[in-house]
Amino acid sequence: MTVAIPSYNGRHLLETALPSLAAQSFRDFAVLVVDDASSDGTADWLGDRWPEVRLLALAENVGVTAALNACIGESDTELVMLLNNDVELDPGCLGTLVRALDLHPGAGSAAPKLLDFHDREVLDGAGDVLTWAGSPARRGHGERDRGQYDAPGEILGACGGAALYRRAAFSRVGLFDSRFFTYYEDSDWSLRAQLADLSCRYVPEAIVYHMGSATLGRESDFTRYHLWRNGIWLIAKDLPARSLLRHLPQLLYGQLWNLGLAVRSRRLGLWASAWRDALRGLPGMLQKRRRVQAKRRISVRELERRIAGPS
User: Fold this and answer.
1) How close are the terminal C-alpha atoms of the chain, in Å?
2) Which of 34, 55, 158, 162 counts the most CB atoms within 10 A of its CB?
């Protein structure tokens, strides 16, 4: 197994992530860091402090999604764990995720329970879900962890910041879509995997503590632009035509909600830019849509059941 971490100016974050990997009870893995042209001395620091960690130093900054794909391309193991640099793993995390995939051969990925790094009684996410307003979300995000998501089972997808994948799943589904650059690239992949009839296991016994937006920031214009633009592409690319027609009112409501948020936050120009660029990129997304839908192996009814998710 390979544990791969894309990192941009995150040396201070790796000071927490790497020791938590070294403390794992499961030992059959190698660590790869893909440094996305950092300027904080990450590469030299890794060479001095963590010589056992394999380093791929990119010559220029390519963005989160392309860096994730570099993590996958640079590894050659059957299992690949993708991690953000702003995480800390419980010592039993990796072994628990590996066992879950061993027990469920039809699953292409596995999602741990994410807890807030700073307040460890608060959920950061219990697997990824999608609303019919077209909004991906981390289930339970911000809730107090009272055990309400402690039942293992199928979930729509895993947060790409901490997820275990089968290499065979990437061969079947493809890599992350680099056009997304950052945000929703994991939701796009999860939807494509579900369409190809590859499930995702939610494994609550596997715990990851997540700082959250430690590199990009929580509500910057950069973040909001990519969420708005990529949400449009996600809908246009991945949802079958029957689902688009059936849920058109909810999907329109979701876009009107984004418009209202833009007005309230005085970001109407940013929202317009996101729509402009989404429309410019739409022909390419529609080309990809044809390939995605051609790989669909489940019925629309089954997809909608999976999107509805666990009760």
Assistant:
1) 33
2) 158
Nearest residue to 60 via CA among 77, 41, 38, 79: 38
Q: Give exposure, 284-309, as e/b (b: 16+ Cβ within 10 Å).
A: ebeebbeebeeebebeeeebbebbeb
The type of residue at 105 is: P
Contact 173, 198 (CB under 8 A): yes
Q: Is 266 exposed, middle or buried (0-12, 13-18, 19+ CB in 10 A)?
A: exposed
What values do phi and psi take at 110, rounded to 5?
-140, 140
Instruction: Give residue-wise pLDDT tens across range 187-226.
Output: 999 999 999 999 999 999 999 999 986 555 557 999 999 9
* Cβ neighbours of 261 (radius 10 Å): 14
What the block records as the tokens of 248 is 């058109």
CA triplet 18, 31, 104: central angle to 5 degrees?
105
Radius of gyration of the chain (CA): 19
CA 77/CA 94 separation, integer angstroms: 15
Query: Which two three-digit tokens encode residue 216?
Result: 């990009």
182: left (phi over 0), alpha (psi -120 to 50) or beta: beta
- Cα dist from 97 to 3, 111, 116, 133, 195, whole Å: 12, 8, 19, 31, 23
CA distances (Å), origin 198, targets 140, 193, 250, 290:
23, 5, 26, 19
CA dist 7 and 83 (Å) reads 9
- Please say whether the beta carbons of 21 and 97 come within 8 A: no
Model's pTM, two decimal places?
0.95
Interval 133-191: pLDDT, tens: 999 999 999 999 999 999 999 999 999 999 999 999 999 999 999 999 999 999 999 99
Closest by CA to 112, choosing from 10, 8, 20, is 20
